[in-house]
Design a protein that fits this description.
- This protein has 285 residues and is α/β, with parallel strands linked by helices.
- The chain folds into two domains: 3-54, no CATH class; 57-277, Metal-dependent hydrolases (TIM Barrel, Alpha-Beta Barrel), CATH 3.20.20.
- It has eleven helices and nine strands.
- A nine-stranded mixed β-sheet has the order 7-6-5-4-3-2-1-8-9, with helices on both faces.
- Helix 2 (21-30) packs antiparallel against helix 4 (40-54) and helix 5 packs parallel to helix 7 (119-131).
- It is globular and about 45 Å long.
- The two termini are 27 Å apart.
- Residues 14-52 have low confidence and may be disordered.
Length: 285
Protein backbone atom coordinates (compact mmCIF):
# COMPACT_ATOMS: atom_id res chain seq x y z
CA UNK A 1 0.00 0.00 0.00
CA UNK A 2 1.46 3.38 -1.04
CA UNK A 3 1.36 6.35 1.31
CA UNK A 4 -0.99 8.13 -1.08
CA UNK A 5 -3.43 5.23 -1.13
CA UNK A 6 -3.21 4.90 2.65
CA UNK A 7 -3.96 8.58 3.15
CA UNK A 8 -6.80 8.40 0.64
CA UNK A 9 -8.37 5.70 2.82
CA UNK A 10 -8.01 8.02 5.82
CA UNK A 11 -9.58 10.89 3.89
CA UNK A 12 -12.54 8.77 2.83
CA UNK A 13 -13.04 7.64 6.43
CA UNK A 14 -13.03 11.25 7.57
CA UNK A 15 -15.51 12.19 4.83
CA UNK A 16 -17.89 9.50 6.06
CA UNK A 17 -17.39 9.80 9.83
CA UNK A 18 -16.50 13.48 10.23
CA UNK A 19 -13.84 12.77 12.83
CA UNK A 20 -11.07 15.32 13.34
CA UNK A 21 -7.66 14.52 11.92
CA UNK A 22 -5.98 14.71 15.31
CA UNK A 23 -7.58 11.30 15.94
CA UNK A 24 -6.13 9.90 12.77
CA UNK A 25 -2.68 11.25 13.55
CA UNK A 26 -2.78 9.31 16.83
CA UNK A 27 -3.83 6.18 14.98
CA UNK A 28 -1.01 6.57 12.51
CA UNK A 29 1.59 6.62 15.26
CA UNK A 30 0.12 3.46 16.75
CA UNK A 31 -0.31 1.58 13.48
CA UNK A 32 2.30 -1.15 13.24
CA UNK A 33 2.10 -1.47 9.47
CA UNK A 34 2.62 2.24 8.90
CA UNK A 35 5.54 2.53 11.32
CA UNK A 36 7.27 -0.35 9.58
CA UNK A 37 6.94 1.10 6.10
CA UNK A 38 6.94 4.89 6.36
CA UNK A 39 8.88 7.59 8.09
CA UNK A 40 6.54 9.02 10.74
CA UNK A 41 7.49 12.63 10.02
CA UNK A 42 6.57 12.15 6.35
CA UNK A 43 3.15 10.80 7.28
CA UNK A 44 2.62 13.67 9.69
CA UNK A 45 3.39 16.24 6.98
CA UNK A 46 0.90 14.64 4.62
CA UNK A 47 -1.72 14.61 7.36
CA UNK A 48 -1.21 18.32 7.93
CA UNK A 49 -1.97 18.94 4.26
CA UNK A 50 -5.18 16.94 4.50
CA UNK A 51 -6.09 18.58 7.77
CA UNK A 52 -6.24 21.94 6.03
CA UNK A 53 -8.92 20.56 3.70
CA UNK A 54 -11.01 19.62 6.72
CA UNK A 55 -11.65 23.32 7.27
CA UNK A 56 -13.14 23.76 3.79
CA UNK A 57 -16.85 24.09 3.05
CA UNK A 58 -18.65 20.99 1.82
CA UNK A 59 -21.39 21.19 -0.81
CA UNK A 60 -23.70 18.73 -2.50
CA UNK A 61 -24.18 19.67 -6.14
CA UNK A 62 -26.57 16.98 -7.41
CA UNK A 63 -29.51 15.59 -5.46
CA UNK A 64 -33.18 14.71 -5.87
CA UNK A 65 -36.31 15.06 -3.77
CA UNK A 66 -39.63 13.25 -3.77
CA UNK A 67 -41.41 16.54 -4.51
CA UNK A 68 -39.87 16.72 -7.98
CA UNK A 69 -38.30 13.40 -8.94
CA UNK A 70 -40.22 10.16 -9.36
CA UNK A 71 -37.10 8.15 -8.48
CA UNK A 72 -36.69 9.80 -5.06
CA UNK A 73 -38.46 8.63 -1.92
CA UNK A 74 -37.20 11.21 0.59
CA UNK A 75 -38.73 14.64 0.96
CA UNK A 76 -36.73 17.80 0.45
CA UNK A 77 -36.85 18.51 4.17
CA UNK A 78 -35.52 15.04 4.97
CA UNK A 79 -32.71 15.47 2.45
CA UNK A 80 -31.76 18.85 3.89
CA UNK A 81 -31.61 17.49 7.43
CA UNK A 82 -29.56 14.49 6.31
CA UNK A 83 -26.96 16.68 4.63
CA UNK A 84 -26.81 18.95 7.64
CA UNK A 85 -26.22 15.93 9.87
CA UNK A 86 -23.45 14.81 7.50
CA UNK A 87 -21.59 18.08 7.93
CA UNK A 88 -22.43 19.83 4.66
CA UNK A 89 -22.47 23.61 4.36
CA UNK A 90 -24.98 23.63 1.55
CA UNK A 91 -26.82 21.69 -1.13
CA UNK A 92 -28.10 22.31 -4.65
CA UNK A 93 -31.46 20.70 -5.40
CA UNK A 94 -31.45 19.37 -8.97
CA UNK A 95 -34.69 17.50 -9.52
CA UNK A 96 -35.40 15.86 -12.86
CA UNK A 97 -37.05 18.29 -15.23
CA UNK A 98 -40.17 17.58 -17.31
CA UNK A 99 -38.15 15.66 -19.91
CA UNK A 100 -36.67 13.41 -17.25
CA UNK A 101 -37.94 11.15 -14.48
CA UNK A 102 -40.25 13.80 -13.05
CA UNK A 103 -43.19 13.22 -10.73
CA UNK A 104 -44.94 16.42 -11.81
CA UNK A 105 -48.29 16.12 -13.59
CA UNK A 106 -47.38 17.11 -17.14
CA UNK A 107 -50.99 17.92 -18.00
CA UNK A 108 -50.91 20.98 -15.74
CA UNK A 109 -50.66 24.49 -17.21
CA UNK A 110 -47.02 25.56 -17.62
CA UNK A 111 -46.91 28.08 -14.77
CA UNK A 112 -48.52 25.65 -12.33
CA UNK A 113 -46.25 22.87 -13.50
CA UNK A 114 -43.15 24.97 -12.91
CA UNK A 115 -44.41 25.98 -9.47
CA UNK A 116 -44.93 22.34 -8.50
CA UNK A 117 -41.50 21.45 -9.85
CA UNK A 118 -39.81 24.06 -7.66
CA UNK A 119 -41.40 22.80 -4.43
CA UNK A 120 -38.50 20.46 -3.71
CA UNK A 121 -36.12 23.40 -3.67
CA UNK A 122 -38.53 25.61 -1.73
CA UNK A 123 -39.14 23.00 0.97
CA UNK A 124 -35.41 22.29 1.31
CA UNK A 125 -34.70 26.02 1.51
CA UNK A 126 -37.29 26.49 4.25
CA UNK A 127 -35.77 23.68 6.28
CA UNK A 128 -32.26 24.89 5.57
CA UNK A 129 -33.08 28.33 6.95
CA UNK A 130 -34.11 26.69 10.22
CA UNK A 131 -31.13 24.36 10.62
CA UNK A 132 -28.31 26.44 9.13
CA UNK A 133 -27.91 24.81 5.71
CA UNK A 134 -27.52 26.83 2.51
CA UNK A 135 -29.89 25.61 -0.21
CA UNK A 136 -29.62 26.59 -3.87
CA UNK A 137 -31.67 25.84 -6.99
CA UNK A 138 -30.61 23.79 -9.99
CA UNK A 139 -32.20 21.71 -12.72
CA UNK A 140 -31.34 18.31 -14.12
CA UNK A 141 -32.42 18.64 -17.73
CA UNK A 142 -32.55 15.42 -19.75
CA UNK A 143 -33.61 13.89 -23.00
CA UNK A 144 -34.34 10.38 -21.77
CA UNK A 145 -30.70 9.35 -22.01
CA UNK A 146 -28.36 12.25 -21.29
CA UNK A 147 -28.62 14.58 -18.32
CA UNK A 148 -27.33 18.11 -17.87
CA UNK A 149 -27.11 20.04 -14.60
CA UNK A 150 -28.16 23.66 -15.07
CA UNK A 151 -27.15 26.31 -12.55
CA UNK A 152 -28.13 29.98 -12.61
CA UNK A 153 -31.83 29.94 -13.46
CA UNK A 154 -34.86 30.09 -11.15
CA UNK A 155 -38.61 29.67 -11.05
CA UNK A 156 -39.15 33.06 -12.66
CA UNK A 157 -36.91 32.17 -15.60
CA UNK A 158 -38.60 28.82 -16.10
CA UNK A 159 -42.06 30.41 -15.96
CA UNK A 160 -41.14 33.02 -18.56
CA UNK A 161 -39.56 30.49 -20.94
CA UNK A 162 -42.53 28.23 -21.63
CA UNK A 163 -41.18 27.07 -24.99
CA UNK A 164 -38.01 25.32 -23.82
CA UNK A 165 -39.58 21.87 -23.99
CA UNK A 166 -39.94 22.35 -27.72
CA UNK A 167 -36.20 22.87 -28.18
CA UNK A 168 -33.72 20.22 -29.24
CA UNK A 169 -31.21 19.51 -26.42
CA UNK A 170 -28.30 21.41 -27.94
CA UNK A 171 -30.57 24.35 -28.79
CA UNK A 172 -31.75 24.47 -25.19
CA UNK A 173 -28.18 24.24 -23.87
CA UNK A 174 -27.04 27.03 -26.13
CA UNK A 175 -30.02 29.17 -25.18
CA UNK A 176 -29.86 28.71 -21.41
CA UNK A 177 -26.14 29.48 -21.43
CA UNK A 178 -26.81 32.63 -23.45
CA UNK A 179 -29.07 33.69 -20.56
CA UNK A 180 -26.14 33.49 -18.15
CA UNK A 181 -26.58 29.96 -16.78
CA UNK A 182 -23.83 27.36 -16.59
CA UNK A 183 -24.26 23.74 -17.66
CA UNK A 184 -22.35 20.64 -16.56
CA UNK A 185 -23.05 17.28 -18.13
CA UNK A 186 -23.95 14.72 -15.47
CA UNK A 187 -22.56 11.16 -15.51
CA UNK A 188 -21.82 11.22 -19.29
CA UNK A 189 -20.68 7.59 -19.46
CA UNK A 190 -23.17 5.90 -17.14
CA UNK A 191 -24.55 2.60 -18.41
CA UNK A 192 -27.98 1.45 -17.24
CA UNK A 193 -31.04 -0.27 -18.72
CA UNK A 194 -32.98 3.00 -18.87
CA UNK A 195 -30.27 4.75 -20.92
CA UNK A 196 -31.03 4.28 -24.60
CA UNK A 197 -28.11 6.31 -25.86
CA UNK A 198 -26.00 9.18 -24.61
CA UNK A 199 -25.15 12.35 -26.48
CA UNK A 200 -21.87 14.13 -25.89
CA UNK A 201 -21.76 17.78 -26.86
CA UNK A 202 -18.61 19.33 -25.37
CA UNK A 203 -19.11 22.62 -27.20
CA UNK A 204 -22.45 23.19 -25.47
CA UNK A 205 -21.45 22.66 -21.82
CA UNK A 206 -19.27 24.47 -19.31
CA UNK A 207 -17.94 21.41 -17.53
CA UNK A 208 -18.27 17.71 -16.77
CA UNK A 209 -19.34 15.82 -13.66
CA UNK A 210 -16.40 13.41 -13.61
CA UNK A 211 -17.17 11.88 -10.21
CA UNK A 212 -20.70 10.72 -9.58
CA UNK A 213 -20.67 9.12 -6.13
CA UNK A 214 -23.58 6.81 -6.93
CA UNK A 215 -21.61 4.81 -9.50
CA UNK A 216 -20.76 1.28 -8.46
CA UNK A 217 -18.69 0.76 -11.61
CA UNK A 218 -15.62 3.06 -11.39
CA UNK A 219 -15.20 2.96 -15.17
CA UNK A 220 -18.15 5.35 -15.58
CA UNK A 221 -16.26 8.06 -13.70
CA UNK A 222 -12.89 7.18 -15.24
CA UNK A 223 -14.29 7.63 -18.75
CA UNK A 224 -15.86 10.96 -17.79
CA UNK A 225 -12.50 12.18 -16.52
CA UNK A 226 -10.77 11.20 -19.77
CA UNK A 227 -13.52 12.91 -21.76
CA UNK A 228 -13.12 16.15 -19.81
CA UNK A 229 -9.35 16.06 -20.20
CA UNK A 230 -9.68 15.39 -23.93
CA UNK A 231 -11.71 18.57 -24.43
CA UNK A 232 -10.05 20.64 -21.70
CA UNK A 233 -13.33 21.09 -19.81
CA UNK A 234 -13.65 22.06 -16.13
CA UNK A 235 -14.51 19.18 -13.80
CA UNK A 236 -16.72 18.67 -10.78
CA UNK A 237 -18.41 15.98 -8.72
CA UNK A 238 -21.77 15.21 -7.18
CA UNK A 239 -23.56 12.51 -5.24
CA UNK A 240 -26.77 12.03 -7.23
CA UNK A 241 -28.47 11.07 -3.98
CA UNK A 242 -32.14 10.09 -4.15
CA UNK A 243 -32.94 9.44 -0.51
CA UNK A 244 -31.45 9.50 2.98
CA UNK A 245 -30.75 5.76 3.27
CA UNK A 246 -29.77 3.26 0.57
CA UNK A 247 -29.39 5.92 -2.16
CA UNK A 248 -27.49 8.51 -0.16
CA UNK A 249 -23.89 9.06 -1.25
CA UNK A 250 -21.51 11.49 0.54
CA UNK A 251 -20.00 13.15 -2.53
CA UNK A 252 -19.94 16.67 -3.90
CA UNK A 253 -17.21 19.28 -3.64
CA UNK A 254 -15.06 21.15 -1.15
CA UNK A 255 -14.54 24.90 -1.38
CA UNK A 256 -12.22 27.25 0.52
CA UNK A 257 -15.05 29.81 0.66
CA UNK A 258 -18.81 29.76 1.01
CA UNK A 259 -20.92 29.96 -2.13
CA UNK A 260 -23.63 32.57 -2.47
CA UNK A 261 -25.66 30.81 -5.17
CA UNK A 262 -25.67 27.85 -7.54
CA UNK A 263 -24.17 30.09 -10.21
CA UNK A 264 -21.41 31.11 -7.82
CA UNK A 265 -20.62 27.42 -7.35
CA UNK A 266 -20.56 26.83 -11.12
CA UNK A 267 -18.24 29.76 -11.70
CA UNK A 268 -15.92 28.42 -8.99
CA UNK A 269 -15.76 25.10 -10.85
CA UNK A 270 -14.86 26.88 -14.08
CA UNK A 271 -12.18 28.86 -12.26
CA UNK A 272 -10.71 25.68 -10.74
CA UNK A 273 -11.61 26.75 -7.23
CA UNK A 274 -13.07 23.49 -5.89
CA UNK A 275 -11.92 20.02 -4.86
CA UNK A 276 -14.00 16.96 -5.68
CA UNK A 277 -15.10 14.66 -2.86
CA UNK A 278 -14.43 11.07 -3.87
CA UNK A 279 -15.98 8.64 -1.38
CA UNK A 280 -15.56 4.91 -2.13
CA UNK A 281 -18.10 3.51 -4.63
CA UNK A 282 -21.25 2.11 -2.98
CA UNK A 283 -21.33 -1.64 -2.52
CA UNK A 284 -23.18 -3.64 -5.14
CA UNK A 285 -26.43 -5.15 -3.91
Amino acid sequence: MSIHKFLNVITNCRNRLHIGYNYYISLIFLDKYTKQVYNISTVYIHCNVIFQRYDMYRYETHLHTSEGSACSNSTASEMARKYKDEGYTGIIVTDHFFNGNTCIDLSLPWEKKVHEYCKGYEHARETGAKIGLDVFFGVEYGNGASDFLVYGIDEKWLTENNDIMEMEPTVFLEYVRSCGAKVFQAHPFREAPYIRGTIHCPLFVDGIEIYNASHRDPRFNERAKIYAEWYGLPVTGGSDSHNTTDRFYPGGVLSPRKFTSALDYAEAVIAGGIEILTPPPPSAK
